[in-house]
């Protein structure tokens, strides 16, 4: 059996552990693996590498993906690209495809399976932890630990200078990273997309903290938190105010508001791509390995049109459906727990 | 309401996050907390500190326990010590006690509750992950990451010198740390108490690996793995063999066997107490914080004789019973997954 | 003897190790220490704390400064503030002052010594490594390691996505951090203030790299590198070009140029204040401890109007002069060594 | 020009950075490099790999040595092995050899140069920092940081349990790692080979500490510290005392003494090979890169029979002599500075 393997969308720590596990399980069953380069683009253009146990040696703790990734979607040019995908899949002599990716990558897998009974197994991947298929997705734990290490560093310099430090994390659609890392770092306020931003409450909280004698604070903000809406307009720089340039990005905007409304020195850090790179944590390596082994099992048993889920600590098979690759918001119980640290 | 708080048994990263969370939740509800020093010993001898929000500031990421710990058990001298515990509990004006500890510490809590309706709430703590009450216990994730970092370091020097590196981890009764960290590190063999040790199979596996051209290997061994029993006696140095000193400790014994039977240079590292110290990981801080908040809630609601459990990702209340604080072995599905990396 | 101790200017890892060492040495000689809070502001306003061996326990590895810091300069209002400094110094019964800081903080010390024979000992501090008094200044090693860890993370995601990653480091006046960290990270190009920026050469280098089959690259840029001047105007977005917003910051500008001129996806990370916070490295703790011990010795021996230098690995006494606290540029031999990695 | 390159003796972090730098500099000069595998063994047996810029990509931050290492010494069997070294050097068409190693490896280089004008350039390597040629040798900074991280972890658990923690570091002949790491960790006592061990003084110091209310302590011991000699026999378990097994290793012996003489719970950690593996620190990568570039320059300029030195922060050429590769003891000024933290 020849199992193709591709990684699509934004990369995250743990992808190589998935690859390694698939290759080892398939090899142990007497099959072989073909690595498809750069996500779906590799099937459109037939860019592949052989994947053997020897070639995947030592990658369990390596960041990124040795297969490369892309956001290429063959359904943008279905007539040419979907046809190429099918033709190259045939030409490569593949019997199955394990596709590791987020909603976009798995959305393609879903359509291919629906349209052509394409023999695909999906492995959900989202560093933001925002896929319905998983309570916790690999890469998330690594990202959170990177944020917490940065937050711990910002704390000490913030306290030395009595500054508010604003740390902007990944999370365009959801607040998992911001909330989870904020709770771990003992953040003094956290802003996430799932909770309407109440700037007045934030400023009150920071003021109470100062009254209690703590002149530094740490605010964690998810990239996707939005200031629009019911916020007190007095807090916020209007877009066209003369001589009042509106800062770019949510982190800088929140810092602007704190500095100008609370009159306290404030600094911002946008961690960006650092959150998705480098050595994965132990938990991410283990979860990714378990998913890789399970995906190989499904492929070997020809359970196609399926997806792996990770819920309640268990990895299970589920149908590859739009629901299962749908979005997942922050569990607000976590936000409430984190908010217990707010003054 | 005056909530007493103690930490007993071996310390682990996350205890301070529990303490901080209890204090914050109790304070938010208008109560106050009293810290009992050094586990049950602090109630026997009335050694306490006040615990306020200000005094627990900045400890969420601090290793150890600011309250100190001990293995003192008042039921060893019940007439004097149990009486002291009850008298001091009264004298301190405590309304509830949150006890954070393993089977010993919680066993005392259980007896006190049975014998005297002592108003206690238990929080399970085990760095070894071997309590029935929790799928994953705080401290475990930190320990595993420490082991994996050590393993990653041992790998590079092992490969430079074509040596087998044997890494002995904590785990007297269970193989959770060894198995989980071994899987994350891509260990070439793992020995745990739950799986009968088959030295012949281990040596065969290492030999296959060498035949495949890999002259270095990493073997992870839980402290509690046992060589006695069905092992091939040819593998093992008999205790009284002349001129053949039996090495101390399981790690050194396994290394002895590999060096002498497989004739390959072998080195051992026993990580010991380093695994239970220092900065907790993000996941341990979050889990500990959630447990602390939930424990405070139980105390505030006077739900005594209870214990928190962490199963399927959920924290829940359960009765404080011998079963719930009973032992928990390694889930062998993890061992099977880890074994997929063995040659 | 009563030794005052203050930390001024931007904080950096190692300040607490200096404080601890001064306190221990002075205490061992039978003297005592008084901590001045928030730099010179603490002497203007008489904000102090006692500093004992017990109170400085456990801070050798703590980031920031337990004394707080500020950029307050009494010579801005000499009539009131300099007078206050002198009056409070008297009132506190201080015999000596150890001032830890950069050119601003030590400049005040220098003037006070010149004007009033103020009994001061200076300890140079600059995270940017840009003071003449030291080949290597404490805090620098920590900052560099933080940059390198970030760079290692950016590498893996850059390679997965075939992107150029631009990492902007601290260094307003000098390129020490960018160059040293860039060399350690194997950066593919480095931009520093000391070397005129040649954007054409940078783009050629990145192009050669791509021709050699490497589609990702890492560019490290010091905050203070300047694009103005002899740069090819074709590379750079003019400030008023319609529909072409000029990006803010040097990192974003360089990324803009690479993305638009080399037509390759590019991402930027500005590490900012994270570089000056958190746990100091071993080398910074050792250097800071050695400086603290030497500063205490000078104070105890009443060698005032002096400064410690760190040159050729040796710590020595020097007169506190404008030259010794003058600026220090990157040693270009390091840049040449780093450039050996450019394609 | 064809430059051979080998790494001998115990590996250490930074070797790959040396290799990478040599390869890049030689390639830039139009030459090429040949990697000799496993130290001198690779020349005896003609085991080589080509070393190109592409093949050394991404190794600057990789622990160990991609060339492998060994302690093989051709002068043990000079008639056969030295002859093989010379014959294979010829057969491989090598023009120069860069040998990276400690006193053994460089001792062979020295003899080969003396006996046959062998065209060799030496790069000193010692993780223990015990070679005369270098104030600081690459690998040392990494080892020290690993020790300090372990010490920081031991601290928190030691304090929770009021235990003395004994940490045994590398350093068979010298106390550099123990002293430098001990100072960085704020160790309460440090034992090194260069300072006669005075157990009575150590016990007194720990007792004073307890009297000051600190019930935990950290003792750092170099592997090569010796208890023999003027030590109080009352402190030490005699080798043949009945029922009193003498512990193995210096760390365990010191712990035995503290536990039995001071009557305080004590635990030991022997860090061993973990200290020489894994990702090198920034400073080690930079130093190794500078040495590699300088070694390539010497080879390209045919400056054979030379060695690189690292003194006063400068890298310089020196003759390859027995003196220059002779031993180097701990600078006792460091020990005195570290001792300022002893109670």
UniProtKB/TrEMBL annotation, chains A, B, C, D:
<keyword id="KW-0963">Cytoplasm</keyword>
<dbReference type="GO" id="GO:0030388">
    <property type="term" value="P:fructose 1,6-bisphosphate metabolic process"/>
</dbReference>
<protein>
    <submittedName>
        <fullName>Pyrophosphate--fructose 6-phosphate 1-phosphotransferase</fullName>
        <ecNumber>2.7.1.90</ecNumber>
    </submittedName>
</protein>
<keyword id="KW-0460">Magnesium</keyword>
<keyword id="KW-0479">Metal-binding</keyword>
<dbReference type="GO" id="GO:0005524">
    <property type="term" value="F:ATP binding"/>
</dbReference>
<comment type="similarity">
    <text>Belongs to the phosphofructokinase type A (PFKA) family.</text>
</comment>
<dbReference type="GO" id="GO:0016208">
    <property type="term" value="F:AMP binding"/>
</dbReference>
<dbReference type="GO" id="GO:0046872">
    <property type="term" value="F:metal ion binding"/>
</dbReference>
<dbReference type="GO" id="GO:0042802">
    <property type="term" value="F:identical protein binding"/>
</dbReference>
<dbReference type="GO" id="GO:0005945">
    <property type="term" value="C:6-phosphofructokinase complex"/>
</dbReference>
<dbReference type="GO" id="GO:0003872">
    <property type="term" value="F:6-phosphofructokinase activity"/>
</dbReference>
<dbReference type="GO" id="GO:0047334">
    <property type="term" value="F:diphosphate-fructose-6-phosphate 1-phosphotransferase activity"/>
</dbReference>
<dbReference type="GO" id="GO:0048029">
    <property type="term" value="F:monosaccharide binding"/>
</dbReference>
<keyword id="KW-0808">Transferase</keyword>
<dbReference type="InterPro" id="IPR035966">
    <property type="entry name" value="PKF_sf"/>
</dbReference>
<dbReference type="InterPro" id="IPR000023">
    <property type="entry name" value="Phosphofructokinase_dom"/>
</dbReference>
<keyword id="KW-0324">Glycolysis</keyword>
<dbReference type="GO" id="GO:0070095">
    <property type="term" value="F:fructose-6-phosphate binding"/>
</dbReference>
<feature type="domain" description="Phosphofructokinase">
    <location>
        <begin position="2"/>
        <end position="298"/>
    </location>
</feature>
<dbReference type="GO" id="GO:0061621">
    <property type="term" value="P:canonical glycolysis"/>
</dbReference>
<keyword id="KW-0418">Kinase</keyword>
<comment type="pathway">
    <text>Carbohydrate degradation; glycolysis; D-glyceraldehyde 3-phosphate and glycerone phosphate from D-glucose: step 3/4.</text>
</comment>
<dbReference type="InterPro" id="IPR022953">
    <property type="entry name" value="ATP_PFK"/>
</dbReference>
<dbReference type="InterPro" id="IPR015912">
    <property type="entry name" value="Phosphofructokinase_CS"/>
</dbReference>
<dbReference type="InterPro" id="IPR012003">
    <property type="entry name" value="ATP_PFK_prok-type"/>
</dbReference>
<dbReference type="Pfam" id="PF00365">
    <property type="entry name" value="PFK"/>
</dbReference>
<dbReference type="GO" id="GO:0006002">
    <property type="term" value="P:fructose 6-phosphate metabolic process"/>
</dbReference>
